[in-house]
Amino acid sequence: MADTAAARRQSPGFLLLYALASAGGAIAYVPFLTIWLPGRMTELVGTADVQALGYTTFFGAIGASAGGIFFGWLSDRTHNRRGWVLAGLGLSLLLLLLVPLARDVWTLVGVIIAWQLALNMMLGPLAAWAGDLVPDEQKGLLGGLLAFSPALGAWSGALVTWPGLVSGEGRLAVIALLVAGAVLPVLLFGRPRTFPELTAPPAHFQDASPRRPTGPAIRMWLARLLVQIAEAALFAYLYFWFRSIDPAMNDNEKARIFGIALSLAIPIALIGGRWADRNDRPFLPLVVSAAVSAAGMIGMAFSAEIDMAKASYLAFGTATTVFLSLHTSQTLRILPRSDRRGRDLGIFNLTNTVPSLIMPWLTISLVPGFGYDALFLLLAGLTAIAVLLLATMPRPR
User: Fold this and answer.
1) Span 53-68, average pLDDT
2) Which of 15, 108, 125, 379 is 20 to 30 Å from the Cα of 363, by its Cα?
3) Considering the entire predicted model, what is its pTM?
4) Contact, 223 vs 331, CB < 8 A?
């Protein structure tokens, strides 16, 4: 009986290797985009670095969005996720090492766009691969393991900037080695069990009926978009908000609070994911974490002193990371077409890039005239809508 149950579950070894590979994506872009690239922009254009970085971020987001959909679709058509992951890994690492050769802004922008396309050649098929191989009964556990990704991204940034450990010129090479070390093990040593039912096209789609998204898929997409808008705003403006409350707060303390939130999310996501698997309640942890996230933002809006501000941000940051990790895995169960999984996940990836286009306008419209408290209350309201969307969603059969 135990052997039969084990045969219906993916091996723990593969799940761990897969989670490590997924973290390779965060290791690739977090230290590069948040640490190396801003410094390089300053070297190239001096005081115009903020504007130049904005252009780079904007066009890079477009490249990431297009790459996620296109290469996810290609991996659907070729039925070869592993090959696309390997090709994207090699090409993205090569482009990463070529970035320092760009001697002007627009060359750098072009290389960044190419790098984003290559990175999503790896990440799009990698995300779809989990849907091919992880049964619904383990998707909560998978989501918990995916909570390691943002934490490892932040820790890798701390590693490559450790004083005296890596020279400025050698940081990208170290990042490339870390990414390769995270992704290659699952490609070389992963021996997953196969589940044909996870990749078989649904019977009612085998005719020429329209390919329309389902109600749960639309709800999940909108809920993630709303939460991601709040996450993007806090990621971009956390530094300035803390400074407005306590000008004496140093950068190391800000970074430490950010790291603590990401680290606390790991055990909470693992526990919540396992609970969802055992009780067949895949969406309840999403509802709870989104509600805590909204409460954290309300606390931030009314924070007048630094200790309350820190506690409120920890509640928000931890709950949001838990939500995004578990949402990623549970999305796999509600996509309408298993044979279009890569393409559909690419469309879901728009919830990661579109907020970067929406968030600056919200901030510019609210903060100068009404302050951060108005911004946080609006974001809390958006997150509350996400709570309602998920709380009223029918349970899967």
Assistant:
1) 84
2) 108
3) 0.86
4) no
